[in-house]
Amino acid sequence: MSIFKRFRDMTMASINDLLDKAEDPVKMLSQFLRDMEQDINEAEVAVAKQIAVEKKFKQQFEEAGQMVDKRDQQAMRALEQNNEDLARRALQDKKEYQIRFDEMKTQYDVAKQNADRLRGQLTEMKSEFGKMKNKKDLLVARAEAAQAQKQINQAMSGFGTDNAAKGFDRMSEKVLQMEAEAEASNELRSGNRSLDDELNNLDKSSGVDDDLAELRARMQAKKQS
Q1: Do 25 and 126 share a domain, yes or no?
Q2: Annotated region Disordered: where (predicted)?
């Protein structure tokens, strides 16, 4: 059957080849498993139909066999009662049931072989599906680890590079420029004092001169004494 052949053809080599071409391995793996589940569902339907055929032939050959035994016993009773004609008719019917029994038994044997083979293939498919599911979990974990490593590598690629160093240098120069501008502004303010500032300084100078004059007077008085 095509569904079994298609499943068997889906080897790990073909899966790996498809993964190489996939943009998202995790999504592709999930799709593979969904395809496998669909194959298994189709296989289960096919197996169920074959089992139904098997049971049908079994029922028919068993019924025919029962009628063979029944007609044989009836022919025996008819002969015991000296009814040879009835015994002949019973034996003739027995032959017809025997032919039917042989035909149905042959059909049943074939149907059972087919059903057994399909059961085995279905079991194999489910076993393979389980292996693939475990394989998928492993591959997903590896893909996530690889993606995390890739993101870290990308983040690290711009960390502490020349661009960052140059950026720090620019900011350092900018801070120095700001400090220089602040100092220049302060000097400019000192050079452009207001009239009030000069008058205040004048008052301060006059006070010092008075103190100095007092000090000289005291020194002169000390020399004279």
Answers
A1: yes
A2: 176-211
Domain identity same for 117 and 11: yes
The model's pLDDT over 52-62, given as tens digits with 9 standing for 90+, comes to 999 999 999 99
Range of the domain at 16: 2-157
Q: What is the pLDDT of residue 142?
A: 83
The owner of tokens 């599906």 is 129
**DSSP E strand boundaries for the chain:** none
State the residue for tokens 């303010």: 189
Share of the chain above pLDDT 90, in %: 39
Number of domains the chain is built from = 2
What b/e string do you get for 149-172 counting C-beta neighbours within 10 Å, with b at 16 or more? eeeeeeeeeeeeeeeeeeeeeeee
Distance of CA 70 to the CA centre of its chain: 64
Please answer whether residues 118 and 46 qualify as being in contact, where contact means their C-beta atoms are separated by less than 8 angstroms: yes
pTM of the predicted protein model: 0.53
- Joined tokens for residue 157: 């690629």
